[in-house]
Give the backbone structure.
Amino acid sequence: MKSIVLGHKEERDELLRGNYVLRNGLDEARESIKNNLIKVIIGPRRAGKSVFAIQMLKGLNFAYLNFDDERLFKITDYDELLKAIVQVYGDTKYILFDEIQNIANWELFVNRLHRRGFIIIVTGSNSRLLSKELATHLTGRYIQFQIFPFSFSEFLRAKNFTIDETIEIKERQGRLLNHLNEYIRKGGFPEVVVKDIDYGSYITTLFESILFKDIVKRYNVRYSKKLHDLGYYLITNHSSEFSYTSLKKLLGFRSVHTVENYIEYLSEAYLVLKIERFSYKMKVQLKSPKKVYSYDPGTISAIKFKVTPDMGKLIENIVAIELCRYRKEIYHYKTGSGKEVDFIVKKGIKIGELIQVCYDIENYSTKKREVSALLKASGELGCNSLKVLTWDYEGEEISGSKKIIYQPLWRWLIGRAEQSLSL
């Protein structure tokens, strides 16, 4: 056991020597080290969770164990593990457990260490496995951080593009839009952005690995080909509605129940994001079609058949993930007359904002459709905060006595990042 821990210490030291892009929310995470709550960092594989944790702990003597090491999968004597940690690191009170969902009963071990006064940081790539154990055994004793692939503001940081007052110069905006196009195409996985490697093969390999290693093996999935087909279909049809029944028929599943389970597996592994259609009646909400999104725009480019990109759906996907990134409670909505609103943002028991996403708002018929849906939904839901996110159009209009704000996607994205950094 000691030799394994020593090997992981070398891995830790290598990580500490790296230069990394500043992630949004890092200051808050570093501040949390001062309290004794267990820190839980969750998100997709390769999104930067380990590096985020390393950045949190930089300057401290902390122990590090990576449970992606197959030699630790079947560990049963956790006291032997703790013994090896103390041998290698001495009396440190900080321990980072990476990809902890790979070992059984991890939460009991972490809980015991926490009671003994250790400051514990854990990372994991499966939302259900973590949340289930957290809710059962760590209630009230942990704080959670979500790490996704780079947001657009983090992407700009990696490209050394500074947001300052010169952003109002049209030439600078042109460069920024060029970066946004690249972000939409390649996505935000840190290795893709920083090392400028081939995003297509990288993401496809990662997607396949998560499907078969994190889902098929973990859940003993019987119909792995069906799971594969479902994952690819959902990514290819991102920003679109689906129902379990229609997917059953289309992809030849034997039961709706299997489709539901497989989509939950894909969601838990951060391969797809599922959003419900809003209704005040829970029964209606559960039965209504859902919408699906990818956690990274580059995954869409890598997986989807090479056709002319639908920019409207691509930027809608980016908005969905950005809202999710900042833990907004979001839904899609259809009015009583069948008009669609891309996102409603719920604040407590009230609807806080209605958002439409439209690439080409200068097309009259398109603009009329988007505004009409916003106004109708505004009346039905009692919400007067109405916004249309565009590619590059900006302005305000009064329509039907209600103000509608038009904002370029890039300005909305960097504005959200500035808000998060000021929290």
Remarks:
- The CA atoms of residues 238 and 395 lie 29 Å apart.
- The two ends are 42 Å apart (CA to CA).
